[in-house]
Specification:
This protein is of the alpha+beta class and about 775 residues long. The chain has 19 helices and 28 strands. The chain has 3 domains: about 15-25 and about 465-605, Aldehyde oxidase/xanthine dehydrogenase, molybdopterin binding domain (Aldehyde Oxidoreductase, domain 4), CATH 3.30.365.10; about 30-135 and about 195-250 and about 255-290, Aldehyde oxidase/xanthine dehydrogenase, a/b hammerhead (Aldehyde Oxidoreductase, domain 3, Alpha-Beta Complex); about 290-460 and about 610-765, Aldehyde Oxidoreductase, domain 4. The strands form 7 sheets. Strands 3-5-1-12-9-10-11 form a 7-stranded mixed β-sheet, sandwiched between helices. Strands 7-15-14-13-8 form a 5-stranded mixed β-sheet, with helices on both faces. β14, α9 (about 330-335) and β15 (about 345-355) form a beta-alpha-beta unit.
Length: about 775
């Protein structure tokens, strides 16, 4: 077959963008069946309080169809936590669909109102009478474990859900006992509000004849939502619900989970036998959707005199919020498994505690534990370099796992299959002009500015969601349809999967139609999370396409009176190689119409061990000592993603994740009042997000080493930008502050105020 113009490795522009840029996208809020009722949620203004509720007056208001409180849904299950410790299981406290008697964070749900209009629903919200009796609240993971701290759940004394460890404590202690010196960092990874562009929304339609619900919803996976809603909460057969996901405007992990509103809208629609619509406002998102990060960590590295890492010991506390979200406890525990990073650390120990606080629940947010781990180890490696007077690149090279050591089993049991870590470090330094940095720093100093340069070399594990099935079929007109249970929330799945089909069939991507997010049309699906779409779904599409190709060649062989070995695919035809004899896909579809099984194929794949993308971020910053403002002036990324499917899609994903990391490093932080648990940063007036002007031009390159455990050779890429960026930015800031002022620590976000105060404190210390 001739080289494929639109196949794997080509920079094909996104198929989905034409409709989106023309305003023809279809998001959940665009789905407006008529007539429809409208719903709103009543949320707690208190972080911790007892309460009684009286909705009798509100129920009598004009247009009010239903008001649901905890007493009305006694038969419903709660939101489940789908993670537990395999060796020491914990008992999760209940996560009720509506709070009963006690609320545990600002925004906790206490009533669900359904009315004919949104305005009437608001009136009803105002008319619900609640008698609040505030209780002491605890905010912050470090505060939660202090003696005498307010208790979120009585059955979890000390606010601790679990206290466990990874690695070998005795081996780590022995390493520290013989160490020449020890480097240590104590850092806070601040809490993040995810703030995707499209707020959550849901429309539920009820078919009385079939006693059947159709839930249209913007999520990261229709099948998981349906199964949890039906089996764990509503207690109805899954056949009684269809979940449809239209276009989804961002997710970042946070749209993967079931939420209270989904269960309530289904419950109310079934009770009222009517269609109901609910759309979150941005204020709902700040207090009603799971938040991210929020770890407090102390990490130490035992060092030999020559800079070799002898052992690592970590104490990590992860804040779960007031309830356990779907995968909440997994995030710090799973992330801890990646703490050794790219380094040959034989002796490792980590204590992991998860704690409750009177805040919004925490769950997966782009990277889900791996950015937190990379931030810890890369901050610690720089601290080790300063401790020994070594260059940050030199100490990394000294301790990187060598390519010849692959496959390499880490002290936490992860098996890295491939990679050349020193190579992408060198490439990033060459591209970033590392050797010439002193000249630039000297020139900046003449202007009264401080330049800093920093590195972060990361590794993550992804693609471990489980088994994904792809169904590929030939359409009557000769086009190809792909049905798959992953779910795009902006990543470009339609284009990526179409390229895999194009690679096999020599067909233009425009003739490949990808369908996701419909539990009636697609039998199974994992949804999308953990950068799993291409490592798992892509392999499934490739295998199903090849299987279909074999069937089509057999049909063509009969039609062309040729052997299958003599046939090749070209431009939606199958032709006899070296001749002008061919049959079009459309004609093949007609010939196979009597036996539809010959026109479709299904295959599945599970990447049980995952893939391990890795890379280096290099950042150069300019700091204004007079104001504390940090400006990013150079940013270089060199990543190892195994194989590049589409350079344009890949670069877009890396840029997006990197900007999220820049936002966290410089400005993003959810702040709760330590006295009463109020969310102080509850709007965009107080919570900062990065604009395009906050990011520098990014130079992105790859140094790919194919993954040997994945048939496509790919390593997941969707979260990588968010993993390498935070430590690189902060290391660059600290490098400049250390050189000029002796400042060796600053926590994220490195806001102008924090930087300015650190400089002023350092100057006062020098003067004294």
């Amino acid at each position: 077959m001739a080289p494929v113009k639109f196949g794997v490795g080509q920079s094909v522009r996104r198929k989905e963008d034409d409709a989106l840029v023309r305003g023809r996208g279809r998001y959940t809020d665009d789905h407006a069946p008529s007539p429809a009722l409208h719903a709103l949620m009543l949320r707690s203004p208190h972080a911790h309080a007892k309460f009684t509720i009286d909705a009798s007056r509100a129920r009598a208001l004009p247009g009010v169809e239903m008001i649901v409180t905890a007493d009305d849904i006694k038969d419903l299950g709660g939101l489940p936590c789908l993670f537990n410790l395999p060796d020491n299981p914990f008992t999760a406290p209940p996560y009720p669909i509506l709070a009963r008697d006690i609320v545990r964070h600002v925004g906790d749900a206490v009533a669900f109102v359904v009315a004919k209009t949104v305005a009437q629903a608001r009136d009803a919200i105002e008319a619900i009478a609640i008698d609040w009796k505030p209780l002491p609240a605890v905010v912050g993971a470090a505060n939660a474990v202090k003696e005498g701290a307010p208790q979120v759940w009585p059955q979890h004394p000390g606010n601790v859900l679990f206290d466990t460890s990874l690695g070998d404590k005795k081996a780590a202690e022995a390493a520290f006992a013989k160490a020449h010196s020890v480097a240590e960092v104590s850092i806070v990874n601040p809490r993040i509000v995810t703030n995707y562009m499209e707020t959550r929304a849901a429309v539920c339609e009820y078919d009385a004849k079939r006693d059947h619900l159709t839930l249209t919803i913007g999520s990261q996976g229709s099948h998981r939502l349906r199964d949890i809603l039906c089996q764990n909460i509503l207690n109805i057969p899954v056949e009684k619900m269809r979940v449809i996901c239209p276009d989804v405007g961002g997710g970042f992990g946070t749209k993967l989970f079931p939420y209270r509103e989904y269960a309530l809208i289904a419950f109310a629609s079934r009770k009222l036998r009517k269609t109901i619509k609910w759309t979150a406002e941005r204020s709902d998102h700040f207090v009603g959707d799971s938040q991210g990060r929020d770890n407090v960590t102390t990490a130490r590295m035992a060092l030999a005199e020559d800079g070799k890492f002898l052992g690592m010991d970590v104490d990590l506390i992860g804040d779960m919020g007031g309830y356990l979200s779907t995968f909440g406890p997994y995030i710090p525990h799973g992330g801890a498994g990646m703490l050794p990073g790219l380094y040959d650390v034989q002796a490792f120990h980590c204590r992991v505690r998860t704690v409750f606080t009177n805040t919004v629940p925490v769950d997966a947010y782009r990277g889900a534990g791996r950015p937190e781990a990379a931030y810890v180890v890369e901050r610690l490696v720089d601290a080790a370099a300063r401790k020994l007077g070594m260059a940050p690149d030199a100490i990394r090279r000294k301790n990187f796992i060598a390519p010849r050591a692959m496959p390499y089993k880490t002290a936490t049991g992860k098996i890295y299959d491939s990679g050349d870590f020193a190579a992408h470090l060198k490439q990033a330094m060459d591209v970033g002009g590392w050797k010439e940095f002193p000249k630039r720093a000297k020139a900046a100093k003449k202007q009264g500015l401080v330049r800093g340069i920093g590195l972060a070399s990361y590794v993550e594990v992804c693609g471990t969601m489980g088994e994904e099935t792809a169904h590929v079929q030939l359409d009557p007109n000769g086009d190809v349809t792909v049905l798959i249970g992953s779910q795009s929330s902006g990543q470009g799945h339609q284009t990526a999967y179409a390229q895999i089909v194009a690679e096999q069939f020599g067909i233009a991507p425009e003739r490949v139609h990808v369908f996701q997010g419909d539990t009636d049309r697609i039998a199974t699906g994992l949804g999308t999370g953990g950068s799993s779409a291409i490592p798992s779904g892509g392999v499934s599409v490739q295998r199903a396409t090849r299987k279909l190709g074999e069937s089509l060649k057999q049909l063509a062989a009969d039609a062309l009176e040729a052997g299958t070995a003599d046939l090749e695919f070209s431009d939606a035809t199958i032709r006899v190689a070296g001749t002008d004899r061919f049959i079009s896909f459309a004609d093949l579809a007609k010939k196979g119409s009597g036996d539809p099984a010959k026109l479709d194929a299904s295959e599945k794949f599970s990447s049980a061990d995952g893939t391990f993308p890795n890379g280096t971020h290099l950042v150069e910053v300019e700091i204004d000592p007079a104001t504390g403002v940090v400006r990013l002036v150079n940013y270089v990324i060199v990543d190892d993603f195994g194989v590049t499917l589409n350079p344009l899609l890949l670069e877009g994903q890396v840029h997006g994740g990197t900007m999220q990391g820049i936002g966290q490093a410089l400005m993003e932080r959810a702040v709760y009042d330590p006295k009463d648990g109020q969310l102080i940063t509850g709007t965009f007036m107080d919570y900062a997000l990065p604009r395009a002007s906050d990011g520098p031009p990014i130079t992105f390159q790859t140094h790919n080493v194919p993954c040997v455990t994945n048939p496509l050779g790919v390593k997941g890429a969707g979260e990588a930008g968010a993993i390498g960026s935070c430590p690189a930015v902060v290391n660059a800031i600290i490098e400049g502050l250390w050189r000029e002022y002796g400042i060796d620590h600053i926590d994220m976000p490195a806001t102008p105020e924090r930087v300015w105060m650190a400089i002023r404190e350092a100057e006062r210390h020098r003067q004294s």
